[in-house]
Every structure is written in structure tokens, then in C-alpha cells.
Design brief:
Blueprint: E1 19-21, E2 27-29, H1 34-65, H2 68-97, H3 107-120, H4 132-146, H5 156-182
Antiparallel strand pairs: 1-2
Helix pairs in contact: 1-2, 1-3, 1-5, 2-5, 3-4
Length: 201
């Protein structure tokens, strides 16, 4: 995962109250407002998902260009990358589902919750439909009142650790599926895009 690119734009960094420095050198939100921590985790999962998406697209091209002798190895790598993307997306969806259960304790916390909601509309066919543009308008108003969120892009080392973790999960699922198939037990667990542990909402 040496080529995680940094094309995803995040809000500007402001080191205000609500963050602390950990022993690993990564800023974390304290528990003063759990909505801020929720947004930070969601943005991290979203970023990792995008990195893994770009990886699986590159591997897909290699599978299509592969010659018969090495096609199987490339196909396995591609299957793992696809499932790893599913795992990262699943993590983001689970965080989105926590929004109704997390109480914001500040205006910035409300902004954080709306950031997740508005950010999720990128997957909707037409984000200009009601209520998405209206939510974006409210979010912009709140940002002008409450100020910028203390956010930053995840460090590359953090992204790489997450990518490797999701790839390991995906490899384990793929191995289980292949083992079940070899034992004649059917296709094994449903693996998302290739067949995997896809999150059902």
C-alpha cells in the first residue's frame, strides 16, 4: 500500500480544544463531545475505503492484462482488495448508523454530525434532491456560527495500518470461502463484492 494518494480534501486543520496528542503522535478527540470523535472515525474509514478502491481498480486492470499462467495470483489479489474495500466501507456505514445514538455536546458536535450526513450523500444518485442541498445549507450556516472543525487527514502510516488490517480480514474471508468450496460445502460465507461479510443495513 505504498501509494495511498491524498486527493481527498478535508476541512482545514485547527488545533483547538477537543483534541489531545497521543503517544503515537496522532491527534485524537477527547470525550468532551463524542460527535467529534464519531466524525473523525468516519472520515478515517472513508479515506481508507477510497484508497482501497483505487488499489482494487489498479489490480482489476492487471487481472485484465494478465496472461493465463499468472492470472490466478492476480485474481486472488484483486479479490482481496475488493473485499478489503467492502470492509472499510462497512466500518464507515456502522459509524453513520451511530449518529442517532450519539448526543452532540456543542455546536461543533452538531456540525460534525451534519458533516457525516452531508458526506454520505455523495453516494446518492442526485445529491441536489431534497433534503440534501437543504442540509448542506444548514451545515454551512452552522459552520459560520460555530467555526471550523478541528480535523486533519489521517497520517499515511495510520492509513497503511488500516488498509493492511482490512486486507488481512479480506484474505481470511477469502480463505474460508475457498476452504468451504474445496470441502464441497457450497460457496462459503457471502463475500460482499466477490462474495464477503458485507454489512447489511
Amino acid at each position: 500500500m505504498a501509494d495511498s494518494d491524498n486527493s481527498t480534501s478535508l476541512p482545514p486543520v485547527t488545533h483547538g480544544r477537543g483534541q489531545r496528542q497521543t503517544a503515537h503522535g496522532v491527534d485524537r478527540f477527547d470525550e468532551a463531545d463524542p460527535a467529534l470523535a464519531l466524525l473523525q472515525g468516519w472520515l478515517r474509514a472513508q479515506h481508507v475505503s477510497h484508497v482501497l478502491c483505487r488499489l482494487q481498480q489498479r489490480l482489476e486492470r492487471r487481472v485484465l492484462d494478465a496472461t493465463a499462467p499468472n492470472a490466478m495470483d492476480k485474481k486472488i489479489g484483486y479479490s482481496i482488495a475488493c473485499q478489503a474495500e467492502v470492509e472499510a466501507t462497512t466500518a464507515a456505514l456502522k459509524l453513520q448508523d451511530k449518529i442517532p445514538h450519539v448526543q452532540a455536546r456543542s455546536l461543533l458536535g452538531v456540525v460534525a454530525k451534519l458533516e457525516i450526513i452531508a458526506g454520505a450523500d455523495r453516494d446518492i444518485d442526485d445529491p441536489t434532491d431534497f433534503p440534501w442541498s437543504h442540509i448542506a445549507s444548514v451545515l454551512n450556516d452552522l459552520k459560520k456560527i460555530a467555526g471550523s472543525l478541528p480535523l486533519e487527514r489521517p497520517q499515511r502510516s495510520v492509513v497503511h495500518v488500516d488498509c493492511r488490517r482490512y486486507q488481512a480480514i479480506a484474505a481470511d474471508l477469502l480463505a474460508l470461502e475457498m476452504q468451504a468450496t474445496n470441502l464441497g460445502l457450497g460457496p462459503g460465507p457471502s463475500l460482499g463484492l466477490n462474495g464477503g461479510s458485507e454489512y447489511r443495513r
